[in-house]
DNA sequence: CTCCAGGTGATGG
DNA sequence: CCATCACATGGA
């Protein structure tokens, strides 16, 4: 079926934005999107129209929220235009980006893995985890596609199995995260009710989760868009373009969205 | 060979 | 509180 999306929506930019590591262009213009145990093929056809592989009810309940389509990104870009010359350039370069509303557990594991790895290496480790601990959810390009494992599925992970996912020193971090979910110290649904600070503190109890990873889980897993993770790219932008001063308090509840534009722009040498 | 990658924990001041 | 340093692994 088809859907009309009148706001910013650039699938290639979203795929390259470093917030999802399983989105792939499987044939020119067609993107395979994976989240939890769901798979979607989406393709821009003409004007605002996109062709999608799901039913209308799946679109409404799964993918419309996943792509954060209730939020007007072009209005946000317009709102902050003119405040800072560099930010303007970033919003222009990143026009089409959206913050995906991904699964919190998937984000926690993924961003623990992300530390001191480049994006291709993160994708490779994530795929190995899906293949080993997830389950088959379909086929594409003559290969099996696996879900991202649930916390329940990951309880069968051990040091030996995880070490074959190229996790290096992060293996005990993943085991700690999984163990906290299985004994209830970490409950992702209950955590939805916490405010930003409480959620941050709870996430930081997990080994291998510090300021940056906790903020990524808040932003991408809980849509806490006031959170603006500072990684090496953002720190570089702060040093080179904002006089060494973190600019994100200027952007209030949209700080995380502005951060995403800057991250994208820095990685594409704007 | 060296250097680096969406950082964090442990240690020492 | 801030500055260092080690930490596995794969790719350039």
Structural class: alpha+beta
Largest sheet: 5 strands, antiparallel
Tell me the helix content.
Answer: 40-55%
Radius of gyration: 18 Å
Roughly what fraction of the amino acids lie in strands? 5-15%
**Could you tell me how far the N terminus lies from the C terminus, measured between alpha carbons in angstroms?**
37 Å
Strand order of the biggest β-sheet: 1-5-4-3-2
Mean pLDDT: 97
- Regions with little confidence, pLDDT below 50 for 5+ residues: none
What is the number of E strands? 7
What is the 3D shape? globular
Q: What is the string of helix and strand elements? A: EHEEEEHHHHHEEHHHHHHHH
Total helical elements: 14
Task: Produce a short descriptive summary.
With 270 residues, the chain is α+β, with helices and mostly antiparallel strands. The protein has helices at residues 11-15, 56-66, 73-80, 85-93, 104-114, 119-133, 151-154, 159-163, 171-182, 188-191, 196-203, 211-221, 232-241, 255-267; strands at residues 2-4, 24-27, 30-35, 38-44, 49-52, 136-140, 143-146.
Protein model, in words:
The protein is an alpha+beta fold. The protein is about 45% helix and about 10% strand. The protein is built from 14 helices and seven strands. It has helices at about 10-15, 55-65, 75-80, 85-95, 105-115, 120-135, 150-155, 160-165, 170-180, 190, 195-205, 210-220, 230-240, 255-265; strands spanning about 1-5, 25, 30-35, 40-45, 50, 135-140, 145. The protein has a five-stranded antiparallel β-sheet. It has a two-stranded antiparallel sheet with strand order 6-7. Strand 4 (about 40-45) and strand 5 (about 50) form a beta hairpin. The longest helix is centred in the middle third of the chain and has 15 residues, at about 120-135. It starts with a strand and ends with a helix. The relative contact order is 0.14. The model has no long low-confidence stretch (mean pLDDT about 95). The protein binds a DNA duplex (13 and 12 nucleotides) through helix 5, helix 6, helix 12 and helix 13.
């Amino acid at each position: 079926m088809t859907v009309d999306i009148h706001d910013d929506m650039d699938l290639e930019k979203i795929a390259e934005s470093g917030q999802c590591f399983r989105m792939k262009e499987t044939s020119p213009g067609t993107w395979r999107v994976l989240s939890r145990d769901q798979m979607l093929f989406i393709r821009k056809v003409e004007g605002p129209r996109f062709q999608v592989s799901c039913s209308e009810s799946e679109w409404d309940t799964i993918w419309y929220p996943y792509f954060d389509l209730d939020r007007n990104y072009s209005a946000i870009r317009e709102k902050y235009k003119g405040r800072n010359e560099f930010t303007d350039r970033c919003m222009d370069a990143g026009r089409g980006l959206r913050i995906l509303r991904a699964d919190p557990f998937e984000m926690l594991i993924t961003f623990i893995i992300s530390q001191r790895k480049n994006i291709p290496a993160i994708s490779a480790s994530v795929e190995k985890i899906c293949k080993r601990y997830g389950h088959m959810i379909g086929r594409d390009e003559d290969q099996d596609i696996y879900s991202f494992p649930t916390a329940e599925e990951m309880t069968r992970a051990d040091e030996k199995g995880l070490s074959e996912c190229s996790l290096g020193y992060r293996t005990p971090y993943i085991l700690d995260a999984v163990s906290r979910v299985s004994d209830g110290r970490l409950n992702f649904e209950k955590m939805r009710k916490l405010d930003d600070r409480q959620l941050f503190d709870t996430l930081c109890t997990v080994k291998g989760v510090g300021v940056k990873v906790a903020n990524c889980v808040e932003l991408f897993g809980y849509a806490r868009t006031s959170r603006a993770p500072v990684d090496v790219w953002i720190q570089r932008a702060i040093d080179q373009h904002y006089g060494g001063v973190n600019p994100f308090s200027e952007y209030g509840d949209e700080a995380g969205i502005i951060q995403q534009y800057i991250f994208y722009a820095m990685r594409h040498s704007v």
